[in-house]
Design goal:
Number of helices: 12
Strand content: 15-25%
Low-confidence stretches: 6-33
Order of helices and strands: EEHEHEHEEHEHEHEHHEHEHEHHE
Distance between the termini: 17 Å
Helix content: 25-40%
Radius of gyration: 20 Å
Shape: globular
Length: 330
């Protein structure tokens, strides 16, 4: 059952534009213009959500007349979780002759914003662009950067723990201390936990290699993993611990549920990337100015549950939850 992201996100989303407006008329690619559009794509780390956003972005352009190898080319780079590498990629893109840069996730967006001043930048899978210092405001970014946010309904996600494990009192969260997106979600989780009667126990990591030990250190009744790039990249280790200890693992995105998490109310990252691609078309074809293009979000989230994960974790999913799920992974 798809749910609108209403009160769960609070004031953080009030300034966001939720409308997706496709460009009208013939595209430059479809009306005989043979100029090659060059786009640089920088991604902080390889995991399903970020890759889905990238593929959605490229699909939006493909469906609007941009054929890779014919009238559009992509320079796709992955920083493998290293901020220094993300900075190097951004510096390279700054000196390249690009028409647009797509920065996927907060660390790469920050690196791109610092290095690239003359080329339009679109961001996606960035939780809170204003808190990250990327824009002046959600409504009026103010420079050469705009895009889409993946801010999730953290309160609804934590509430799933109470549905799946009513006796749970403590929830463990592993997160990256250096990622602004994670810090924002921790703050939201702390507020939500008060209302839900849950105590949060936190374990901070600086890189993917620390995730397993951090998760093992937590003596809790359940796990919650937000949309944290380092942690999601090492999700297998958290899943293994949750299965061994027979604890529910609720995640921040649907891709993490498909990878072994138990459940989430989450956004569709491919759809988010697609929406970002439509913004790219406005910039490329209409000359839209990123400075005046509001940050956009998706207005619906999906309930995704994993029955195999439930069995492995010793959790019985309530029938009412299964009935309203948008996707059930067997």
């Amino acid at each position: 059952m798809k749910r609108s992201k209403t009160g769960a996100l609070g004031a953080l989303l009030l300034g966001a534009s939720l409308a997706v407006t496709a460009c009208g008329g013939d595209s430059a690619a479809g009306n005989g213009d043979t100029d090659m559009v060059k786009i640089g794509i920088t991604q902080i780390v390889e995991h399903d959500a970020l890759t889905s956003a990238k593929e959605g972005f490229k699909r939006a352009l493909a469906e609007n007349g941009y054929t890779e190898g014919e009238n559009i080319s992509y320079d796709e780079q992955n920083a493998a979780g290293e901020q220094a590498t993300a900075t190097s990629i951004a510096s390279k893109f700054a000196s390249d002759d690009l028409d647009l840069v797509l920065a996927i996730a907060t660390p790469t967006a920050q690196a791109a914003a610092q290095a690239i001043t003359d080329t339009p930048i679109l961001i996606t899978a960035v939780t809170e662009p204003e808190e990250a210092g990327l824009v002046d405001s959600w409504d009026a970014p103010g420079a050469n950067l705009t895009g889409t946010s993946d801010l999730n309904p953290v309160e609804d996600q934590l509430a799933l723990i109470k549905e799946l494990a009513p006796d749970a009192k403590t929830v463990g969260i592993v997160y990256s201390s250096g990622e602004v997106n994670s810090e924002v979600q921790i703050e939201l989780a702390q507020e939500a936990a008060k209302d839900l009667g849950l105590e949060l126990k936190l374990a901070a990591v600086s890189n993917t290699a620390e995730v397993q030990q951090a998760a093992e250190s937590l003596d809790v009744d359940a796990f919650y993993i937000p949309t944290d790039n380092n942690v999601v990249a090492a999700l297998d280790s958290v899943v293994q611990i949750a299965e061994t200890k027979k604890l529910p693992l609720v995640t921040g995105d649907a891709g993490a549920v498909e990878a072994g998490g138990l459940a989430t109310w989450g956004i569709d990252y491919e759809a988010l990337g697609y929406q970002t691609g439509l913004m790219a078309i406005k910039i490329l074809e209409e000359g839209a100015d990123p400075a005046t293009m509001p940050i956009e979000t998706l207005d619906e989230v999906q309930l995704v549950v994993n029955k195999t994960a439930a069995a492995n974790m010793g959790i019985e999913i309530p029938e009412a939850l299964l009935e309203k799920a948008d996707k059930v992974i067997e």
